[in-house]
Amino acid sequence: MKKTLQRALVILLALAMLLTVLLPAVSIFAQASTVTQEDINDLKDQLDDISDRKQEVQEKLASIREDKAKAKEALDLVNDQVLLTEQQISAIQSLIDATQAQIDESQALLDQYDADITAKEAEIADLERQEQEQLEEYYTQVRWMDEHGSISYLSILFQASSFSELLDYITVIGDLIAYNDRIVTQLQETQTALAEARDQVQAVRDQQAQVQAQLEAQKAQQQAQMDQLEAQKAQLEKDRAEAAALMDQIAASESEAAEEARKLAAAEAEVQQALKNAERKYAEQLAALNGNANTGEWYWPLPGKTKISSLFGGRYLFGRWESHTGTDIPAAGGTPIHAAKDGVVTYVSPNKNTSYGWYCMISHGNGYVTLYAHQCQRPIVSEGQSVSKGQVIGYVGTTGNSTGNHLHFELRINGVRSDILKLYPGMKFTGYGTSWYGANYPSGMR
Q: Among the four 67, 166, 178, 183, which has the fewest Cβ within 10 Å?
């Protein structure tokens, strides 16, 4: 019942960590009195779940950051468009101001024109009055001419009683004719001047109207452009607000995903530490059951697993005699494999397509090398890595030329394969219907 409760606690804590990732990971094995292989397998499953979730979060983060880059690009584009529109508005405003200045200048000119027109109109009034006086004088002369006719000039001459009087009459008649001509000429000049004055007034008024119309049309066109740009800017401001809101939303999503990734990384580290502690504690438990045999110089790679299914040396396999290069130790798939002694990893198989399947080799100095074969996956150590005695280097499997889950444990001394059980003289082994210690094999076992 106690072990069942412990296993349930492990599962509940794993689910809480995976689903909420809110509570800090707690080392459940620091409180548990014993650790089972099932507990270790649960922690491995939990690590796999966290790894899958981390992958999902990383993909989500990548997608969010891609969206963020696109949103920023869109926001930058809108900002550039707003800036350009503001520059255009400023330019149009400058044109409007310039046009208004021209209108003001034109108005000043028009005011001057108005003054000139007033003066010209006074001049025209004088000319019109002069014309009226001259017309009246002309009409008086014409009436006199109608009444007396042109023959009157001759009657005047014939009335002269002397030559000198004739000359006086001729002078009078000349003056009269000249007066009549002068009246006609002055009338014509006045009418010509009056027509020119009226033409000038009309020209000034036409010019005034044309200039005013052009400037007003120009200002109206510029104002229309200004209105269009203001509407465009208002739409761009709306677009910018939407883009900024989207950026804020994406940033919030990115922050949430990053926080989730951080918590998953922390949870993974906690579970990895818990797994390491559990494997160590499990090994200590097995070592205690085995009489603390792993406290010696060489560490048994599968603590608690002391049944031997195949010894080093000659054996019959499938009805055929062969030379067996190591010692086979049966164990459940996924059982941790520990380093037999401090050393350096000298080889890790690149794939499982070998007779050994997944395996690795560790050099312990003085020509001693151990080999661990048929692992369920690529060994968790790498070539050149230093390992310590009892460190987990892989997990039991059945890859390569194997008929079931077991560890092929092999020893080489200066390149020569040797019986590794001789390194464990104090350990008790079973197999073949009997038991023995160390290298003291019962008769007929080999």
A: 178
> Rounded to whole angstroms, how far apart are CA atoms 78 and 75?
5
Instruction: State how far the Cα of 67 lies from the Cα of 2, in Å rounded to an integer.
Output: 51
CATH topology (fold) of 296-437: Glucose Permease (Domain IIA) (2.70.70)
Q: Where exactly are the structural domains of the chain? A: 1-289, 296-437
Angle at 100 between CA 98 and CA 105, to 5 degrees: 95
User: Residue 210: how many CB atoms within 10 A of its CB?
Assistant: 10
Blockwise average pLDDT, block size 10, the chain, 446 residues = 37 44 41 69 87 88 89 89 89 87 79 74 75 71 60 63 74 72 75 78 77 84 87 88 89 89 90 83 62 69 92 66 85 95 95 95 95 97 93 96 94 94 87 72 54
Domain 1-289 has CATH 1.10.287: yes
Q: Which residues of 155-193 are buried (b: 16+ CB within 10 A; e: fewer)?
A: ebeeeeeeeeeeeebeeeeeeeeeebeebeebbeebeeb
Q: Which residue, among 295, 283, 275, 297, has the nearest Cα to 365 in the 3D structure?
A: 297
CB-based contact 371:400 (threshold 8 Å) = no
Question: 138 CB contacts (<8 Å, ≥6 apart)?
Answer: 183, 184, 187
Question: Are the C-beta atoms of 240 and 75 separated by less than 8 Å?
Answer: yes
Counted residue by residue, the chain has a size of: 446
Cβ atoms within 10 Å, residue 264: 21
Helix (H) or strand (E) holding 394: strand 392-395
8 A C-beta contact, residue 292 and residue 426: no
- Residue found under tokens 């001459």: 157
Residue at 291: amino acid letter: G
Other C-beta atoms lying within 10 Å of the C-beta of residue 234: 11
Model pLDDT for residues 115-145, shown as the tens digit of each residue? 777 777 777 777 778 767 766 766 676 566 6
H-helix or E-strand containing 378? Answer: none
Residues 6+ apart with CB under 8 A from 243: 71, 74, 75, 78
The two three-digit tokens of residue 184, written as one number:
């006609």
Instruction: Identify the helix (H) or strand (E) that includes residue 240.
Output: helix 163-289
C-alpha span between 300 and 339 (Å, rounded): 8
Q: Tokens 């094999």 map to which residue?
A: 441
Query: % helix / strand / coil in the chain, to the nearest 5?
Result: 60, 15, 25
